[in-house]
Design the sequence.
């Protein structure tokens, strides 16, 4: 893969920073304020913050065949997951329970997965993280980000802004896909002119603006409203906004697994305070139809990395009775993934990672069955390190060199491919360490002539 730089920091640091600031201000004017940010750095063992660049002006030039394979991989993975989810819900109840136990879902998870109504597709907003196998020119999928994918503003607005800067065509179609999918959601949920609520943590600017980006492109003719998660009142009767209005239709950028261990205090029938699990209330409201969650709960089912492992295991027993096409996709697009270290050791090069892992937390890479890289000190290490682990075949990410405000940087390229409303609509490229984390750089792309 080629990388082009309109402004080369090695030739002129002043010109690079001038143009980087110009692009950064345009992104900020359009709601993306994290072109750079204060981050805990690896060099300080994640104890001190410093300014770190996120958006780079380097553009990756993709071979057209490589690009087309990302689209093909996204479509094949979509069809696979639709087949998997559809066939899972057809299983007898006792078998469905057994599958969820094997994956490691809690009682709360099981209630909400089994009790919520089925949607027409497994996820309305999904990103597949793909790695290019340079030997074959094809992409393998590392994981499914089907419930709470981020990188939406980068894939949509930032791609357009930087490609305009280069006077290159825009290849991503995120914004038009968002408009279409929200039309579909309104029809499916029969929203009418009711209020749709959009939520994230108020102090997480990236999540908040991603939610607002969705809200803007929902083009809802009724009322739409952002309400911070911290400001939502929760009772056994429902969720309420700051004005006491009942929340019926709710898009949240917040992992469902976080709810399980959160506690609120309510008065019981005797007027005494009692502790209640937030997750218990949430699952009850969803099952009773008092709360409609957008994305559907099946997106949460699929995002668990242990579920990825279950899908890979269908090559052995096909318990889910998947189609021949789905089995072929598993073989060509997924990586060998197992529940225990003993099962994966024959692969020799493999990765250990948490089932709900994010941003490279607590990931260990083994080469020849020996530790090659280990994330031992990181943000939220205790939370991620306490989770169940999966063991997945390791495939090295392609190397590319990009320009940054500190000079040339050689890093590993991870390709995120967005699926919105069931249609591939754009690539989200990041360049970083062997394990992609929150210090990775965002790059846009073009295609070779």
Sequence:
């Amino acid at each position: 893969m080629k990388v082009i730089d309109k402004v080369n920091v090695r030739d002129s640091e002043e010109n690079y920073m001038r143009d980087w600031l110009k692009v950064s201000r345009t992104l900020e004017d359009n709601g993306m304020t994290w072109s750079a940010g204060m981050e805990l750095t690896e060099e300080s063992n994640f104890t001190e913050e410093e300014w770190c660049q996120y958006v780079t002006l380097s553009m990756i030039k993709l071979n057209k065949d490589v690009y087309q394979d990302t689209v093909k991989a996204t479509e094949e993975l979509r069809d696979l997951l639709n087949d998997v989810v559809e066939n899972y819900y057809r299983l007898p109840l006792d078998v469905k329970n057994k599958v969820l136990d094997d994956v490691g879902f809690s009682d709360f998870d099981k209630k909400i997965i089994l009790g919520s109504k089925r949607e027409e597709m497994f996820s309305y907003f999904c990103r597949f993280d793909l790695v290019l196998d340079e030997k074959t020119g094809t992409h393998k999928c590392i994981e499914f980000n089907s419930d709470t994918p981020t990188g939406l503003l980068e894939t949509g607005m930032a791609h357009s802004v930087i490609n305009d800067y280069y006077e290159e065509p825009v290849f991503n179609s995120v914004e038009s896909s968002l408009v279409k999918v929200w039309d579909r959601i309104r029809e499916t949920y029969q929203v009418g002119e009711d209020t749709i609520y959009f939520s994230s943590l108020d102090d997480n600017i990236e999540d908040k603006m991603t939610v607002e980006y969705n809200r803007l492109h929902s083009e809802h003719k009724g009322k739409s409203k952002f309400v911070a998660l911290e400001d939502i009142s929760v009772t056994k009767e429902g969720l309420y906004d700051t004005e006491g209005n009942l929340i019926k239709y709710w898009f949240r950028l917040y992992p469902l697994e976080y709810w399980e261990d959160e506690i609120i205090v309510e008065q019981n029938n005797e007027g005494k305070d009692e502790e209640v699990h937030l997750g218990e209330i949430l699952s009850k409201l969803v099952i009773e139809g008092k709360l409609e969650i957008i994305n559907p709960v099946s997106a949460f089912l699929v995002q668990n990395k242990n579920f990825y492992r279950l899908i890979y295991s269908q090559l052995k027993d096909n318990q889910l009775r998947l189609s021949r096409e789905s089995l072929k996709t598993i073989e060509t697009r997924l990586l060998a993934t197992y529940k225990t270290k003993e099962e994966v050791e024959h692969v020799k090069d493999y990765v250990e990672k948490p089932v709900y892992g994010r941003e490279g937390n607590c990931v260990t890479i083994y080469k020849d069955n020996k530790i090659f890289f280990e994330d031992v000190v990181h943000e939220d290490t205790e939370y991620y390190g306490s989770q169940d682990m999966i063991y997945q075949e390791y495939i090295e990410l392609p190397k590319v060199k990009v320009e940054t405000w500190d000079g040339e940087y050689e890093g590993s390229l991870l390709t995120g491919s967005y699926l919105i409303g069931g249609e591939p609509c754009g690539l989200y490229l990041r360049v970083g360490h062997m394990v992609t984390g929150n210090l990775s750089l965002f790059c846009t792309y073009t295609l070779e002539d």
Notes: The chain has a mean pLDDT of 91. Residues 176 and 217 are 8 Å apart (CA to CA). The longest helix spans residues 64-90.
